Each structure stands twice: as structure tokens, then as C-alpha cells.
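User: quick one - fold this with magnesium ion bound?
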Amino acid sequence: MTAKTAADSVRPAAEPADEAIRVVDLHKSFGNLEVLKGVSLTASKGDVVTLIGGSGSGKSTCLRCINFLENPTSGRIVIGGEEIAIRADGTPASRKQIERIRSRLGMVFQAFNLWTHRTLLENVTEVPIHVLGVPKDEAHDRAMALLERVGLAGKADTYPSFLSGGQQQRAAIARALAIDPSVMLFDEPTSALDPELVGEVLSVIRDLAAEGRTMLLVTHEMKFAREVSNHVIYLSEGRIEEEGPPEQVFGTPQSDRLKQFLKSVA
Amino acid sequence: MEQVIELLSLSPPGWGGNLLRGLVHSLEIALGAFGFGLLIGLGGAYGKLYGGPVLRDLLAVYTTVVRAVPELVLILILYYVGTDLINKASEAMGYGRVEISGVAAGIWVLGIVQGAYATEILRGAIKAIPIGQLEAARAFGMPPLKMLRRVTIPAMMSFAIPGLANLWLIATKDTALLAVVGFNELTLETRQAAASTRAYFTFFLAAGALYLMVTLLSGRIFARIEKWARKGQPSHRRAKA
Ligand SMILES: Nc1ncnc2c1ncn2[C@@H]1O[C@H](COP(=O)(O)OP(=O)(O)O)[C@@H](O)[C@H]1O
Ligand SMILES: [Mg+2]
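Assistant: Sure. C-alpha cells for the protein plus magnesium ion:
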């Protein structure tokens, strides 16, 4: 992770080779409801960019537009320098391209979304073997190492429904890591967990941040966000109300809405 | 008793061999129709869930009509209309009338009936899959057909099996209706044996026992499949009220 210094608050445009993700003027409407009203953000390799904001402010939608789980109404998405081609109706123009890009974005969902008919090990090897074409032995060994790393080596042959939420979410993180993602997308990874299970998941994410994984993180854990992020974006009603390095956003918030929000979650 | 055994013995003058041949024919058709119905059902369920408005309307007509009209009537319509159309087409192309195999006709007719029920069973089963599991597959770049094979079908299995087990039993019994179009499945063979020997009671009891055996065996097979399909899900027995 890059050092967090005051200089970070003036973010120079990322060198193209360094850029992991760029979102330009993203708009998204559901029917008449405009949920995103022009959101732009960039993350360089190794950055942890955190989105915060009230419920319904558009955080999940923003994340889901990046891998086209939702089709943006307009805007540009550039992943690792490659722009996703979009048709006039907002759908991805090339199925091949979007599938290739998706298979490099490791998404972790609020509700884990593990495949319940597969063991943890099978969950972790599924995408490498069946999407990326990694040889079985290699995928298997790598999956075991990842499960070990998130503390679940002993549960490799267990089905997700028999595990706690914290264990399932750690397995879901291992599943995302198995594709060696260029960017990880976390959508409130601890919001569905009992309070005593939040810590084990945050500590896995903290390690990933420390080893320089590029991440886009939506969270309500403000202390954690302040600790791991390089850059924090406060979304309000589909717009970026305020952004900057964590010390600035959390320490000296400028806008009234952000001040209000931080008070409400404190 | 001795007489009964003689009547049912496998080689002539006993009629047991005919009954067993009828059973095999019945099972052939039931299996074929069930498989054909599953294919229609999978396509129909996908069409109903993800298709355009025209396709959805067509499928609604199909499932409604087939489920509304008595099976016997449908079989007569599909059999005579189907064979008639094939013959007309064949004559138009200058081939003359064709011999249509009873098995193929039976599979076609019953398969179309089965397909309507399978469409509804599979549509319900797909809708019962937690949406997040499908989203996860999409989010990791899984292509649609692979997703069908690796996620949708295995995940919907546990919701579909009980309905499909019923459908299979209906298939085995509906084969008896093909007797009306002269197909020598178990029921027709039984009727012939009974009529020739006047031993109605013996033969219909024997046929009933054969149908029962098929049902019992099917029950065991489906129980295994269901157990396999439900792997990974906690047992409901342990959560009984
Ligand atoms: N599929 C959808 N259809 C209609 N409205 C949606 C859909 N998904 C999200 N929304 C609406 O978009 C707004 C933003 O939702 P979301 O991005 O989930 O917010 P957040 O994650 O910040 O809580 C909410 O008002 C929500 O009701
Ligand atoms: Mg959300």
C-alpha cells in the first residue's frame, strides 16, 4: 500500500500503466429513478478506494455497474487501460470482452453468494477451472493455499450452508482471490454478519490491503475504512459529495451532509 | 394356482413374455417421453423466464392448452394429426406414405404433454434459486451455457426433483393411454392376453403388479437422486416443528 501522506490529497492523474480502474461520468437510472448522477473515480494499482454513504445513495449500484451486473445508462468504464465497449442501449457490446474482464474482477457480495451445491474447495476452484481453464491440479493446490490463508483449510470439503456467516464470507474472499483479480470489489462484506464475526473478515481484507491488492470497497465500518483506504469517496444521492484521503474525509469533513452522515454512523 | 402359473409363464402358451415385452415398450416410451419432455421443459422454462413477449405468449398458450385438455384427447389429436402431417409432407415430396414407428410416435405425443408440465416445474425451480448464486456466476465471467450447466441446473435440482418424480410416474402410466392408438404397450398386451384366455382377473392383477413395481423402484431411484441433489443443504428432518 502506498504511504498515506498529505500529498495524496492532490491526486495526480494516474500514469496509464499504473491505472487499475477508471470510471468516468457514470449515470444509472432505474426507470424514472436516477440513482447515479455522474460518478467518476480512479484507482491506481495497489489503491484501496472506499465508497461510503447512506443507504440508497447508490454505492452498490456503482460497484455493480463496474462489472455490468447492472448496465450503466451512460458513462465509461476502463479496467486496466481497456475500455468496456458499450452499445447504445447500455449493454456490453462484446460478450467475450465483458466475460474476460469480469473474470479478472473479484467480487465479494454482502450476502456471500457462495454456490450452495458445491463444497468450499469446489467454490474456490470453480472459476479457475471452468472459466479460466486452469488445470485441475494447479487450481486445487492454489485453492487449498487460499483456504489455508483465510483460515478454512479444515473446512475445504464442507458445504457453505453448514458454516457461519464469517466463514462463508472468508471463503467468498478466497473464491475471489482464486482468479488473481486485478481489482477486488467488496460490497459491504461485513453488513450481513453478526457483530462478533465482523472482525475475522475485516482482518482478512486488511491483510489484502497491506499486500497491495487493488480494491474498491463499500463499507459502513468507518474506523476500518479510515485505516485501510488511500482514498475515500462520500456518495450522497448518486453524486460524489466529497472525497479525499481518509484523514481529510473523516478528520476535517467539509460538507454538512458528510458531517451529518459521519455523526449518524459514529 | 397351477393354471395361473401356466398362464403367466414366459414362454407360449403362457402370456408372461408378452406382458414383459409390453412393459419394456411402456418403459421405453416413458423414458423417451420423459427425456424429451425435460428438454422441452428446460427450453420452455428459459423462454418463459428470459424470452421476449411473443415467445412468452406462445409458451403460455402451449402450457395452458396441454394442461387443460384431457390427455387421452391430446394423444388422439397429436397422434392422428402428427402422423397425418408427416404423411402429407412425405407424399408432397414424392416419397409416398411412411411407416411411423409406434415408439417414436408415442415418445413424440407423450413428450409434448410432459413438456408442458416440465416447463412449469423447471420454471418454478429456477426461480427458487437464490438470485445471488446466479449473479456470482455472472460476476465471475461465466458464459451463459456454462452457467446453465454448472450453476443453474445443479442449483435448481433440489427444487425440481419432487415434481419431476411425479411427472415420471405420470409418464409411465400415460403410456397405457397409447393403447387407444393400437400401440402394444403393457396395457394393450394385457388386454389381449386377457381376452384370449378369459383370465381377466389374473392378467390385470399381474399388470397392476408390474406398474406397482415400476413405481416402487422409481421411488427409490428418485430418493437417491434427491439426496444427491440436496447435498449441501441442511436436513429438514432436524428442523421439524
Ligand atoms: N434493480 C433495481 N431496480 C430499481 N431500483 C433499484 C434497483 N437497484 C437499486 N435500486 C434503487 O437504487 C437506489 C440505490 O441503491 P443502492 O445502489 O443499492 O444503494 P446503496 O448500496 O448505497 O444502499 C435505491 O433507491 C434503490 O432502491
Ligand atoms: Mg448496498
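One thing worth noting: Residues 1-9 of chain A have pLDDT under 50 and may be disordered.
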